[in-house]
Amino acid sequence: MITLGIDIGSLSTKSAILNDNSVVAYDVVYTGGDNRQSAETTFNNVLAKAGFTKKDIDVIVTTGYGRENVPFADKHVSEITCHAKGMHFLNPSIRTVLDIGGQDSKAIQIGEKGNVVNFMMNDKCAAGCGRFLDIIARALGVKLEELGGIHQTATSTARISSMCTVFAETEVVSLVAVGTPTPSIIKGVHESIATRAIALLKAVGIKEPLGMSGGVAKNIGIVSALQDLLNMKVEVTDYPQVTGAIGAAYIGQSA
């Protein structure tokens, strides 16, 4: 059975195709101001990557903020359920999922079959999410994808007292002005984000193994900070940014 999942997030729209138990192809595009268009774009992209046409797809499932805005979908499912199912598909041993996306973060405790046992979501503030990291990277004059590597070179940690996006950016600029090394600032930002995420995880209840999904999971500095503060391994799959889309496609397998 060939199924396709689309996850429409605030910053990026992701798609994935499953053929039974295998990931055939995936794609990521910027969401922009028209999430219906971004869904159509990633849909066409992932079909081309897989060498399929729309007629080859048995079921299309959408998730994320814009899931209801895709007219060609067969089913719409919440992102909480899709991230749980996606992580279960990729690593069935995981019992707690931390997902940090563009503008929200989620802590999800899952059962043996990938069912949601408990969850908590922070969608009131973008601090500690992908958009926040993008702003910090711009303030430091580095690329977003470079943050994790620079973190690894830090020999000290700058204290970041505010997690408000506006105030934290001001604080970072002030640290730069007094000559604080960039790696130290980045490590301090990552530890602040990790501390915030851990509070969310503890509210849900952490059951090991712990897995991380979302685009921020590609940042090795965040993963390292979480592991150091929790004193436990954080599992990251080969497809962290498209876990929700994979989960949507996986749900389609049983539709």
UniProtKB/TrEMBL annotation:
Cofactor entry: [4Fe-4S] cluster
Keyword Iron included in the entry's annotation: yes
Alphabetical keyword list: Iron, Iron-sulfur, Metal-binding
InterPro entries to which the protein is assigned, alphabetical: ATPase_BadF (IPR002731), ATPase_NBD (IPR043129), CoA_E_activase_dom (IPR008275), Dehydratase_Activator_Redct (IPR051805)
Record GO terms (molecular function): iron-sulfur cluster binding; metal ion binding
Domain ATPase BadF/BadG/BcrA/BcrD type: 4-251
PANTHER family given in the database record: BIFUNCTIONAL PROTEIN [INCLUDES 2-HYDROXYACYL-COA DEHYDRATASE (N-TER) AND ITS ACTIVATOR DOMAIN (C_TERM) (PTHR32329:SF2), BIFUNCTIONAL PROTEIN [INCLUDES 2-HYDROXYACYL-COA DEHYDRATASE (N-TER) AND ITS ACTIVATOR DOMAIN (C_TERM)-RELATED (PTHR32329)
Protein name: 2-hydroxyglutaryl-CoA dehydratase
Organism listed in the record: Paenibacillus elgii
